Amino acid sequence: MFHLIFGIPWLVVVLRFLQPLPWLFSVKAVIAIILLVASQYHLVNRISSGSVFSPEFLRPLVIVFNVLMGTILLLALMQIALDIVSLLLMPFKGHFPAVPVGLRYAMGLAALGLAGFAVSQAIRVPPLKDIDVAIPGLPPAFEGYQMVQLTDLHISRLFDSSWSNEVVARTNALNADLIVVTGDLIDGSVEARTSDIAPLAKLKARDGVFTIPGNHEYFFGYEEWMAYYQGLNMTTLANSHTVIDRGGEKLVIAGVTDLSSTRTAFPAPDVAAAISGAPAGAPVILLDHQPMMAERNAQKGIALQLSGHTHGGMVWGLDRLVARANNGYVSGFYKVDGMLLYVNNGTALWPGFALRLGVPSELTRITLRRAP
């Protein structure tokens, strides 16, 4: 499917943009072949690692692939827009308007520049985003309690050990009470990612570091990764919870498995099991990688759900399509039947589509407040 989807924009670029340029055929043929390879980036991933989700070649090459793939997509959109305008002008001109070669050059440079910027925004260590959350019934002892949410780290050849080291350093500098990692920590097997994920063992918070699986954990050995996270000083909450105690006042942090587990033999997400035995009256913060089941979760009396998965939609405009695939939830706060839902844009994103335009990544500090 990926190969077909990305092959169509390549055809548009070659036939409608590249072919009319006044260049030697040999030059255009070489560029067309380079762009063809770039358009089949996911096939190259499959060849390199056996999975479209985990490129296993040098990081600079992963970056180049993403820039060229982004260029193809943006240039195809520009060319389609140009052709639509030309068709609208055709009745007035009496013929299909000729496109000045200078305009084509400007389009090509604009697409390349935007793609380069989009990749740079995707792969940076994200800036801090501060948000306050007012929770009804929050015990006084937890007024001002600070959590850091990391999500969709997608640690890989693109988001490697140097990147994860910097994320850990910036997170630890916040001196938070709690750190939660809401799924999709990795892309690749335990053997391939050992050195890249190692820095996460240095994450520190007064009340610990907790994580849940995302859908990508199921692509690369769910049981192996869940056990490995435990060895990195992270507590995995898979349909379970922990209780934070402050002088006898309590806050519950619960976590569920990912919705994609329903297509496997592993346990499906079960909110009832996750909060079973939790102290009565204590507010519950639920970690659920995908936001799409928020309405169901709200019926269980959850105060706040923290999710990721959508990457915020990655590109302005594309976020509307991503929202439709996630029951309307894509980025930021939502009020769902009395429950607050926060959908994080992601600390990183999938290296198979590392583009961000108008949808920034985030390292998120959440401060809890007592609702009036």
Strand content: 15-25%
Distance between the termini: 50 Å
Based on the coordinates given, report the CATH architecture of the largest domain.
Answer: 4-Layer Sandwich
The neighbouring-strand order within the major sheet is: 1-12-2-3-4-5
From the alpha-carbon coordinates, what is the Rg to the nearest angstrom? 23 Å
The CATH homology group name of the largest domain: Metallo-dependent phosphatases
SSE string, helices as H and strands as E: HHHHHEEHEHEHEEEHEHEHEEE
Number of helices: 11
Biggest sheet, open or closed, and with what strands and sense?
Answer: 6 strands, mixed
Unreliable stretches covering 5 or more consecutive residues = none
Give the domain tally. Answer: 2
CATH class of the largest domain: Alpha Beta
Task: Report a brief summary of the structure.
With 372 residues, the chain is α/β, with parallel strands linked by helices. Helix content is 39%, strand content 17%. Helix 1 crosses helix 4 and helix 4 runs antiparallel to helix 5 (101-123).
